[in-house]
């Protein structure tokens, strides 16, 4: 498949937002593509055939808030969003976005990457190498109780 992954730039915001609407049903309170305009974030796009944004990933690397009320405020790097256009899913674009985002977010392999997700997405994250972290461990590490499954991806090559 003709896919090239590159850093997102401000001209990608509109199309990345459209992609989010295509993969997350209903109204979502936050438009993740706005992160492209924010410091302390890593944003990558997967470009299909040189033109279309087929995938978008956004990772929070700065702006840690140890007193925040959500896990996404207390863990870094934190995977905020990954999505692939429905027609192009199942062709390892998501897995490659995760691999490249981990390299960019944790270049020294020190901390890995964290996320909290709905149960429906857990299978994908496990497939690409994330390891589920128990609620007890998350509570001990952050002081917060996770609302859904919580995962950590260590900085090592992904399988496949
Ligand atoms: C989740 C998502 C990003 C995966 O992207 P993708 O490009 O389709 O995934 P990949 O092709 O890279 O999948 C990698 C592997 O995970 C598997 N996989 C993908 N989605 C899966 C799921 N929901 N459950 C279990 N396994 C899954 C694939 O079959 C593939 O396995 P393989 O290596 O044996 O072939 C994409 O399906 C998507 O955009 N979903 C809607 C948005 C979403 O749920 N985002 C994540 C939560 S915020």
UniProtKB/TrEMBL annotation:
InterPro entries: Acyl_CoA_acyltransferase (IPR016181), Bact_Acetyltransf (IPR050832), GNAT_dom (IPR000182). Keywords: Acyltransferase, Transferase. Residues 3-159 form the N-acetyltransferase domain. The keyword Metal-binding does not apply. This is GNAT family N-acetyltransferase. It holds the Pfam family Acetyltransf_1. It comes from the Bacteria.
């Amino acid at each position: 498949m003709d896919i090239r992954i590159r850093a997102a730039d401000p001209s990608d915001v509109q199309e990345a937002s459209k992609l989010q609407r295509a993969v997350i049903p209903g109204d979502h309170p936050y438009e993740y593509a706005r992160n492209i305009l924010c410091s302390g974030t890593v944003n990558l796009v997967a470009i299909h055939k040189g033109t279309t944004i087929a995938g978008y990933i956004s990772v929070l690397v700065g702006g840690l808030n140890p007193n925040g009320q959500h896990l996404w405020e207390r863990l870094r790097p934190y995977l905020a969003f990954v999505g692939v256009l429905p027609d192009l899913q199942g062709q390892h674009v998501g897995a490659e976005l995760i691999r490249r985002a981990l390299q960019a977010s944790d270049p020294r392999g020190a901390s890995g990457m964290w996320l909290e997700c709905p149960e429906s997405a857990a299978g994908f994250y496990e497939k690409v190498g994330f390891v589920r972290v128990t609620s007890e461990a998350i509570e001990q590490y952050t002081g917060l109780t996770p609302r859904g499954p919580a995962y950590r991806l260590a900085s090592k090559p992904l399988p496949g």
